[in-house]
């Protein structure tokens, strides 16, 4: 669906029809992802099942996203496939969110309208590691060795200078921004 994926959808109709959608969304089209943690492009496969539960609109959101994350220890690339599948209550107002059962994750679909990209981005954010790290420092050295070889074709001498950078700030600021427009609660 070229160009059509980012518009707002009428989720009331989708919920009534119990619609099931499979979408491939380019990572670049997902709003608000932390660019300091994700490099490269790729696509996120989203499987969305709409319906109604206890009077609420619900979407079961399944994502499969082969991503290239940036290891926060060596700053090298790190292939990770994120898979997540969770139900989300689609609420039409903050007031409705207050009344929703607390065990549900909620997502604001104001006036029954929703951007698939924004919903997928939110779910992906929740599933992303806060601080992506290679399994251990030897994996970092291998990654650093590869990067050095690509950069200058010189024998790699992987300096572990980035070790202190592992305290990289999680995307707390970003979450705050997102929460301004969409509300998620536990
Ligand atoms: Zn690493």
Specify Rg, calculated over alpha carbons.
19 Å
- The fraction of residues in strands falls at 25-35%
What would you call the shape? Answer: elongated
Count of spatially separate domains = 1
Helix content estimate: 25-40%
Bound molecule types: zinc ion
List keywords for this structure.
single chain; 186 residues; alpha+beta; six-stranded mixed sheet; two-stranded antiparallel sheet; 5 helices; 8 strands; 27% helix; disordered N terminus; disordered C terminus; binds zinc ion
Sum this structure up briefly.
This protein is of the alpha+beta class and 186 residues long.
Can you walk me through this structure?
There is one protein chain. Mean pLDDT is 81; it is low at 1-5, 153-170 and 180-186. 26% of the residues are buried. The protein has one domain (8-181). The chain has five helices and eight strands. The longest helix has 16 residues, at 137-152. The strands form two sheets. Strands 2, 3, 4, 5, 6 and 7 form a six-stranded mixed β-sheet that branches. Strands 1-8 form a two-stranded antiparallel sheet. The chain has 186 residues and is an alpha+beta fold. Zinc ion binds at residues 71, 73-74, 76, 134, 140, 143.
């Amino acid at each position: 669906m070229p160009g059509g994926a980012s518009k707002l959808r009428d989720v009331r109709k989708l919920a009534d029809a119990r619609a099931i959608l499979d979408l491939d969304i380019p990572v670049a089209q997902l709003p608000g992802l932390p660019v300091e943690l994700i490099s490269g492009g790729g696509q996120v496969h989203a499987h969305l099942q709409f319906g109604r539960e206890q009077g609420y609109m619900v979407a079961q959101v399944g994502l499969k996203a082969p991503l290239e994350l940036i290891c926060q220890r060596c700053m090298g690339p790190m292939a990770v496939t994120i898979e997540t599948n969770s139900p989300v209550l689609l609420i039409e107002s903050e007031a409705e969110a207050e009344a929703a059962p607390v065990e549900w994750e909620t997502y604001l679909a104001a006036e029954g309208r929703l951007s698939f990209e924004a919903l997928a981005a939110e779910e992906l954010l929740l599933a992303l590691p806060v601080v992506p790290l290679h399994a251990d420092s030897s994996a970092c050295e291998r990654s650093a060795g590869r990067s050095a070889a690509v950069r200058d074709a010189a024998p790699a001498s992987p300096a572990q200078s980035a070790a202190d950078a592992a305290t990289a700030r999680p995307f707390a600021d970003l979450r705050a921004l997102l929460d301004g427009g969409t509300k998620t609660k536990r």
